[in-house]
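Propose amino acids for all 608 sites.
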């Protein structure tokens, strides 16, 4: 057993003030070894699952990245930096951060300006929970009912999965004194959390409210998106709310699967996974009975095999899990044969059915400050740093803000074609079509404080993308075709949402703070064709891609795993991450990813 120590721990403690005990990772040493369970990918789902299994079994985690506290400074720790990490940019020439990011570029998207999209995915212990925007909420009752129906397993209804949501998270009520914004009312239902279960993930409300967001929230409320009485973790997504976020309120640091689940397992002393850092899985190995026996791993040039006495669990994320299945001989036979990969099982759904939510922004000048305003100069940063260090408050302590959901109101539906209207009507009645997010950044213009942003995200995408491979080697990245806007319904729905956003900007509730004409896209964009063109040229990922190894029924030709996350056609192999969610759950997925990890861990521990 090798433990981290020395300089590394000292540096970390100085940076973020954590105890040495929490950094006592049990690090794996390159070379053949054997464990009960081998988890590929120490990301959001992978570490949650590994932490639960390690309480009663030996577990190895194979993670390609290293530690974000080292590789990303305080960018993955201080909440505000989560909003401004440079490598999250989506343009093809984004600033690279190869220690943290997989450097994935999509294929050119013909229906989205032929752009290649940089799709950030974290390569680090903690996975994308270490780079996400920390918004926490759950899907709707109807969406989980749809999940249950699609996979033929009623244990996915909201009532049945609520215990797993509860088990995963601890909720801290809002600190109204630190928030210091009586006009940013927080409403929520405490009964959908249970702190006695000591869920490792920390969920709270930011200790600081962005004035820009408080004003834009008012505009959304004024056009009909009233404050939700129960918030967004009780199975309803309608209206607006100051969002829960995965921030540990005691020191206002990001709560990742690493800082929560893994560190809790370490602290518990009941057992912890052995973590192989900077170690890439290249292939899952099978015996003649098609049982997964282990994983071929490479650590800085050392190649070896980590064997699984019980099971292999693939948690490499929405793009790399289907890639690894294909490289291991599980996937569409035509693809495998094209690269001379011996076929273990012909599973045509691997890499198909990619769902992706996209958004656009409409920007106008406003005369109230935003978080960036308070961090614009070294002197202001010093003040904010003092607030942050001494009180876990101030602009550095905050990331998420105000979010709203709705099905488009009737007056915006009249322009939808019958086909689009019909397709949208197939979604459950409580599944919102659009999410609105507010934000702002310093304008850099002398007489203009803030450029305010209202974005609209499509939660009912009908376009589907796919993931495939271009060689039989792990050293080539997966080929990602996002399929954006290839179904005309998506463009129609977003054009309607665009008009709704303009109505919001025009609301009398903010007339006193809105300054000057629309900045993006600008007053010349008026016809539906112009609006659609703007959306094609500027649509961005909100990084919620899912469903490339979709869970489903055995007789469903597109399904890759069953409702216990077991891969069809082989033994001893499950996939547990956002690739198996059968569709993009409306809104932000991380709560459902943790729920799924808890649920499958329970199945495994109960011998199912
Ligand atoms: C920028 C961004 C912002 C987001 N904002 C939010 C938000 O505000 N709220 C929300 O709910 N969701 C948000 N999401 C989405 C959410 O974070 C993800 O859906 C979720 O983290 C996915 O978890 P996962 O376990 O499927 O994959 P990941 O957490 O990405 O884990 C996959 C892990 O596998 C590792 N890996 C991959 N291939 C290999 C290999 N061959 N060998 C070894 N290791 C490998 C990776 O390095 C990674 O650690 C955001 C995502 C991003 C990227
Ligand atoms: C490691 O295991 C693999 C597969 O079982 C085997 O081929 C190889 O010889 C082993 N290496 C060592 C150093 O034992
Ligand atoms: C983050 O780290 C940078 C570089 O070390 C430092 O300048 C900055 O003050 C830190 N920010 C916070 C909020 O701790
Ligand atoms: C809410 O209160 C904060 C703090 O006093 C203030 O900065 C902000 O402008 C207010 N917002 C609205 C909409 O009144
Ligand atoms: C992916 O989808 C595109 C259409 O959007 C199609 O042309 C391509 O053949 C698909 N690739 C795979 C591997 O399914
Ligand atoms: C904005 O409001 C004005 C007057 O209140 C109205 O004439 C105009 O049509 C509105 N525009 C939009 C896009 O809602
Ligand atoms: C800022 O000042 C310029 C020059 O006086 C003016 O043209 C512009 O409209 C002003 N912008 C706003 C948002 O007030």
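Proposal:
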């Amino acid at each position: 057993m090798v433990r981290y120590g020395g300089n590394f721990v000292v540096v970390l403690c100085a940076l973020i003030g954590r105890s040495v005990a929490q950094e006592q990772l049990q690090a794996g040493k390159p070379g053949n070894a054997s464990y009960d369970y081998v988890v590929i990918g120490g990301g959001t789902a992978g570490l949650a699952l590994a932490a639960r299994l390690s309480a009663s079994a030996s577990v190895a985690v194979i993670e390609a990245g290293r530690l974000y506290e080292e590789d990303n400074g305080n960018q993955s720790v201080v909440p505000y930096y989560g909003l401004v990490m440079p490598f999250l940019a989506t343009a093809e020439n984004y600033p690279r951060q190869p220690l943290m990011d997989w450097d994935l570029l999509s294929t050119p998207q013909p229906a989205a300006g032929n752009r290649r999209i940089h799709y950030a995915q974290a390569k680090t212990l903690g996975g994308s929970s270490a780079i996400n925007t920390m918004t926490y909420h759950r899907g709707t009752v109807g969406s989980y009912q749809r999940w249950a129906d699609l996979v033929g397993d009623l244990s996915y209804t909201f009532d049945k999965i609520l215990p797993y949501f509860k088990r995963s998270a601890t909720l801290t009520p809002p600190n109204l004194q630190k928030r210091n914004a009586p006009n940013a009312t927080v409403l929520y239902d405490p009964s959908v959390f249970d702190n006695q279960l000591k869920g490792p993930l920390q969920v709270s409300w930011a200790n600081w409210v962005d004035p820009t967001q408080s004003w834009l929230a008012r505009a959304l409320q004024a056009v009909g998106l009233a404050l939700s009485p129960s918030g967004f973790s009780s199975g309803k997504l309608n209206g607006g709310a100051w969002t829960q976020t995965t921030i540990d309120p005691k020191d206002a640091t990001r709560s990742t699967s690493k800082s929560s689940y893994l560190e809790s397992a370490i602290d518990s002393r009941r057992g912890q996974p052995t973590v192989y850092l900077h170690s890439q899985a290249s292939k899952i190995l099978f015996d003649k009975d098609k049982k997964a026996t282990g994983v071929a791993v490479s650590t800085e040039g050392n190649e070896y095999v980590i064997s699984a006495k019980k099971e292999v669990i693939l948690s490499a994320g929405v793009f790399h899990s289907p890639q690894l299945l294909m490289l291991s001989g599980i996937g569409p036979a035509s693809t495998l044969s094209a690269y001379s990969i011996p076929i273990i099982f012909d599973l045509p759904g691997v890499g198909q059915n990619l769902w992706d939510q996209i958004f656009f922004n409409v920007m106008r000048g406003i005369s109230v400050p935003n978080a960036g305003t308070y961090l614009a100069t070294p002197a202001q940063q010093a003040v904010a740093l003092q607030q942050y260090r001494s009180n876990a408050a101030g602009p550095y302590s905050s990331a998420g803000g105000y979010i709203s959901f709705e099905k488009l109101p009737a007056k915006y539906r009249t322009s939808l074609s019958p086909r689009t209207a019909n397709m949208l009507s197939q979604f459950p009645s409580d599944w919102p079509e659009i999410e609105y997010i507010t934000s702002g950044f310093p304008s850099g213009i002398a007489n203009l404080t803030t450029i305010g942003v209202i974005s609209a995200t499509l939660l009912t995408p009908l376009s589907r993308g796919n993931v495939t491979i271009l060689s039989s080697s792990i050293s080539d990245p997966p080929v990602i075709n996002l399929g954006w806007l290839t179904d005309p319904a998506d463009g129609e729905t977003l054009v309607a949402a665009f008009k709704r956003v303009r109505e919001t900007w025009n609301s009398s509730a903010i007339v006193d703070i809105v300054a000057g004409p629309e900045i993006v896209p600008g007053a010349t964009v008026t016809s539906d064709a112009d609006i659609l063109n703007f959306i094609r040229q500027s649509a961005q990922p909100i990084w919620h891609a899912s469903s490339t190894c979709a869970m489903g029924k055995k007789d469903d030709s597109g399904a890759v795993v069953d409702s216990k996350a077991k891969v069809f056609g082989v033994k001893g192999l499950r996939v547990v991450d956002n690739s198996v969610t059968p569709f993009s759950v409306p809104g932000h997925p991380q709560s459902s990813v943790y729920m799924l990890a808890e649920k499958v861990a329970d199945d495994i521990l109960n011998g199912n």
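The chain has two domains: 1-21+29-83+120-134+255-356+465-480+546-578, 135-254+358-460+486-538. The first strand starts at residue 2 and ends at 3.
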